[in-house]
């Protein structure tokens, strides 16, 4: 069976919360259908990525990192690197970037889907490309400290009720509203 099948099925069942998300869903689905290598960085024009929102065990806090390149508070995430189970990709990236592994998936379906345009990066030797991102939400099973990622200036457990004070990515605010946490 084609490794893209499960993600295409997940996307077909996904309920969008806005016109922008409906557009993203169409574009991401089309991209996946047209690119058998969509889970690899070698797919030069773009590739599927996975992101993870991590909520505290009591759902009162979210763990975010201030991303050096984007200069924004973001959830964790990264490249699929050939893995077609994007929830697993999101969990792997969360563990690699935060050091937290004792988590569980809040919902089996994505929390949000988005398209990120990545600029040319001489340091990484990357051309401009697109990340077709699938975000999942996880719950931390217990209170934990986190590691410091080299991609982040800072990482924090932030109370959800004061998130509006942070310069957060629009996607984060939309996703938390969808989850009825903001």
Keywords:
about 180 residues, alpha+beta, Nucleoside Triphosphate Pyrophosphohydrolase, 4 helices, 8 strands, globular
Short note summarizing the structure:
The protein has 182 residues and is α+β, with helices and mostly antiparallel strands. The chain contains 4 helices and 8 strands.
Structural notes for this entry:
This protein is α+β, with helices and mostly antiparallel strands. The chain has one domain: Nucleoside Triphosphate Pyrophosphohydrolase (Alpha-Beta Complex). Strands 1, 2, 3, 4, 5, 6, 7 and 8 form an eight-stranded mixed sheet that branches. Strand 1 and strand 2 form a beta hairpin. The radius of gyration is 16 Å and the shape is globular. The chain starts with a helix and ends with a helix. The mean pLDDT is 85.
CATH architectural group: Alpha-Beta Complex
Radius of gyration: 16 Å
Largest sheet: 8 strands, mixed
Number of strands: 8
- CATH homology superfamily: Nucleoside Triphosphate Pyrophosphohydrolase
Shape call: globular
Task: Give the fraction of residues assigned to helices.
Answer: 25-40%
GO molecular function, one term: hydrolase activity
InterPro entries: NUDIX_hydrolase-like_dom_sf, NUDIX_hydrolase_dom
Domain Nudix hydrolase: 45-180
Organism: Candidatus Cyrtobacter comes
Q: What's the topology here?
A:
Blueprint: H1 5-13, H2 19-34, E1 46-55, E2 61-67, E3 72-74, E4 76-79, H3 86-98, E5 103-105, E6 112-118, E7 129-140, E8 152-159, H4 170-178
């Amino acid at each position: 069976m084609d490794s893209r099948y499960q993600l295409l099925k997940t996307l077909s069942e996904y309920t969008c919360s806005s016109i922008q998300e409906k557009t993203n869903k169409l574009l991401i689905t089309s991209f996946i259908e047209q690119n058998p290598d969509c889970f690899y960085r070698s797919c030069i024009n773009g590739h599927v990525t996975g992101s993870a929102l991590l909520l505290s065990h009591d759902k009162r806090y979210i763990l975010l990192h201030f991303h050096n390149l984007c200069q924004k508070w973001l959830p964790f995430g990264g490249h699929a690197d050939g893995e077609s189970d994007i929830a697993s990709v999101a969990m792997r990236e969360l563990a690699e970037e935060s050091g937290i592994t004792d988590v569980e998936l809040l919902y089996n379906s994505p929390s949000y889907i988005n398209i990120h345009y990545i600029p040319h990066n001489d340091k990484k030797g990357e051309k401009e490309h697109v990340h077709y991102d699938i975000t999942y939400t996880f719950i931390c099973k217990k209170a934990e400290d986190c590691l410091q990622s080299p991609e982040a200036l800072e990482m924090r457990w932030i109370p959800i009720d004061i998130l509006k004070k942070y310069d957060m990515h629009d996607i984060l605010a939309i996703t938390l509203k969808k989850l009825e946490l903001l």
